[in-house]
Amino acid sequence: MTVQPIRLFGDPVLRTPAVEVTDFDKELRTLVKDLWDSMQNAGGAGLAAPQLGVGLRVFTYHCDGFAGHLVNPTWDVVGEEMQDGPEGCLSIPGMSWDCKRHLHVVAKGWNMHGEPVEVEGTETLARCIQHETDHLDGVLFLDRLDAETRKQAMREIRQSEWFDGTVPTLKQSPHPLFGRSS
C-alpha cells in the first residue's frame, strides 16, 4: 500500500488544469495504484491526480458498487434530470454541502494500459465522475455552490482545524449546467 498525502484546499495544484496523459507506462500504473491506495485509506468515493500533487488527467473511483479509474476522461450528459445533494471532497476534509449535478452521465477515457473504457453513472457515481473531472480542470465543487452556500462553506473552512489561512479565489466551472443555475 502506497498512501500519499492528499493536498488540501488552498494548495495551488488544485486550481491548475491537469494535462493529458500521453505515456501509458509503469509510472502511470504506479500513479493509479497510489491514487487507489490513498482514496481507500481516506475513505473517499474518488480521488484525482492533482489531489496528490500530480498534474495529470487521471482519477480513481469506488462508489455505488463500481470501482476503477479513468485516464483522460470526458463525460456526456444523459437526459435532462438534475440532482441536488450532499457532496464532499477529500481536499476539504470533514465537510459537505448540497451541490447540483447531472443525474446521469456517461464517461469515456482509457485505463492505465491505454485500452478504451466507458463508465455509465447515475446518482452517486454520476456525481463522482463530474466531481473528479472538475478536479482535472482545476475546479472545486465549491465553485458550483450557490452564492449563499458558498459563503457559508468558506466561513466553515476558515474555522476548520486543518485550514492554513490561504484563501484562493473561487472560479466558475468550465462545465455549464445547460442553462440551469449552478
Automatic annotation (TrEMBL):
On whether Metal-binding is a keyword of this UniProt record, the answer is: yes
**InterPro entries for this protein:** Peptide_deformylase (IPR023635), Peptide_deformylase_sf (IPR036821)
Q: What is its EC number?
A: 3.5.1.88
Instruction: Supply the enzyme class, top level.
Output: hydrolase
GO biological process terms on file: translation
Q: Which cofactor(s) does the record list?
A: Fe(2+)
Q: Which GO terms describe its molecular function?
A: metal ion binding; peptide deformylase activity
Q: One Pfam match, by short name?
A: Pep_deformylase
Reaction(s) catalysed by this chain's protein: N-terminal N-formyl-L-methionyl-[peptide] + H2O = N-terminal L-methionyl-[peptide] + formate
List of catalytic residues: 132
UniProt record similarity statement: Belongs to the polypeptide deformylase family.
Q: What does this protein do?
A: Removes the formyl group from the N-terminal Met of newly synthesized proteins. Requires at least a dipeptide for an efficient rate of reaction. N-terminal L-methionine is a prerequisite for activity but the enzyme has broad specificity at other positions.
Output this protein's name.
Peptide deformylase
Q: Which organism is it from?
A: Lentzea atacamensis
